[in-house]
Specification:
Elements: H1 2-11, H2 36-53, E1 59-64, H3 66-81, E2 88-94, H4 100-107, H5 128-135, E3 143-147, H6 157-169, E4 174-176, H7 191-203
Amino acid sequence: MLSRVLASANELSDTEFSMAALSYRGYWHSSGRPTQQGIEKDAEAFLTWAKQTYPEHGIVLWGQSIGAGVATNAAAERVTKTDDNQHIKGLILETPFVSVRRMLAALYPERWVPYRYLWPFLRNWWDSEQALRDISTASHRPSILLVPAGKDEVVPAPEADYLEGLCKDLQLVYQRRDVVGALHNEASTKASGKQAIVGFLRSL
């Protein structure tokens, strides 16, 4: 799925795009146990490797669903706390949500259900709102593409609306491209979603 997007980008642009996919600890063939702190370290190490391997290239971070939280937090860490903040050119947030805490309330809206009140005990929180606020304070702020799925059965529609409003309020450069008819895992497989991502890459 990712390679088809990359092939389209390379067909339509004079710029050559390369893709590197990070297998977090506890996923695919990577050992270890997935925790937010561990995954944040993996993302930091990945970006360090990317800069060393492709020193003349700009980096676009692409995260889907909970991976959008990983990408946003990694970008915030890089652009606010390192000297090479211009290395991060863009953020693609596919079917993103604001935070795990907000998702708890969205998935369990009934006030009598206890799960929505258990957020203080969460081991992972992935707060994209705070990450975007941090990015807005940086001297270099990457462009952002929001790609919600029109028929997302996992992430409620108000999550993308909230993130869009936040981007506006923080005066971040962003685009939003809703993929009509797409389910949660289909946004970048639909033609319109692929076109949106390719167009964003070419614009950078």
